[in-house]
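F-box domain-containing protein, Rhizopogon vinicolor AM-OR11-026. Tokens?
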Amino acid sequence: MAQSGLGCSTEHHSWALPPSLTSTGEYFNTETLERTPRPIKQPPPEILLEIFKFALPPAVFLDASLAAGPFSPWCLAQRTKKSIVLVCKLWCLTGTLLLYKDIHLRRVGQVAALFNTLQENPRLGMMIEAINVFCYVTHQYSVMFDKALQRILEMSPSAAHISLNMGVCEALIKTIHEYDLSGVVHLEVGEIFFPEVLPCLTQCKNLAILSIETIRGIICTDLLTLEHLQELQISWNSRSTNLNILDIIAQSWTMPCLRRFVLHQVRFALGPAFPEYIHFLDVHGKYLTTLSITAPGTCEYKRYDIKGLQMFLGRCPALKHLALVLPTYHISWAEALSHKCLRWIDIWSTPNHVPSDRAVDVECALKMQDFPQLQAIRFFDWPLLDTTGPRLPLIIPPDSGKHPGTFNWRFPGIDIQDCGGDIYREDMLYVPPSTAVCDVHGPDSMLVDSDDRSFRSASSLSYSAYDSEGDLEMLEDVFDLSGSDSEDETAIDLETTLQIYRDILNADCDL
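Tokens:
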């Protein structure tokens, strides 16, 4: 799906004209012309909004983290939103829905700015459908950040998707359970202590998707019933992570509607965790229709037994959709699997081989086994996993492999193709790990790159989702960024942001 430009039609004004003579000398009535169909000047806002959506890449392909740099596809998409809003008044009113639909708070100062904006214009809070927080909160900001975020959640009643992926200090963690998450449908919990979030789950009566990205510490929980939970995603980042969460969930959680289970182990193999997974599937696997297992280290795990994967399948009799990592050492794994109800198999192709080299062999090996209802096998390019996460096979329907030809998502910085079964990135060259982190946007350079310098004027008290990198910008007043200050920019930002917090929260803190 190639990106098409958005044009702005010129308005033509018709004036009252006297009756005109025809070639035969007769007068014709101008009312007849008025009844003639004419091109519309502007499409209705509902249609205009759909057109704008086609001008932007799907959110699943966008990485909003600062590590991606100021010219990432996410930043380019934010600039597109800004361009749409600045065209005319009608486009501004419609485009604002896109600007505030999905909020990303990448810096601690943006929380104060967003809170101030919502206070001045409460209607903007009604537009917010998703709030993603993944900034680092130091101790000096913790009290003010906590109060501002709680108020933002209260002023955003339509926010059904909440993502808490910020790094926080001990003081903030203790108050997370006070957040109002009663209206949340999709909750993501990242680099915070999950035990502190557990009390919030009791109020999430409509929770349908729960994603736990990091689990640390000793997990203890009372009996919990999630009546509407349909999808559970659990990710681990290291070997030292406590895996008893699966046993706790199996023993204490009741999830009658659970249908999708996603496992993602970032740095270690699947084999050592088999007992915990088996116990979980013994309890909750009977009605699962989707099972996703992504463990990159499995490919190098020499003691890995493919029969363990067959044990997973045996505990999920209603399974229709399976997603897993393609082992690279031997194809015999595909010859040891079978399932009576499985319809779709998605395979993440590992980075140390070309996906198309063995796709045919894998597909033939699977079709020769006992899969009587198998309809399609898809291969996903491994680099997509870093950007989209393991949920991509769920977001792109598994029956999409039936379409003929090639389907493209082509936008600035993004070129992803779906060739009827092979979904891969064309904007990504396979490079060795030694050169994967470039000099311009490495961890050190990101401390002073242009993504930060563009916000040297922290006097803005308003949040806007459509500035050059999608962060802070004045909505009404225009401030000059071209001036050169001799003072340290970081110090200016910190002091000004603290003053913002003091003003809008009336916090009497000794910082």
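Residues 43-102 form one domain.
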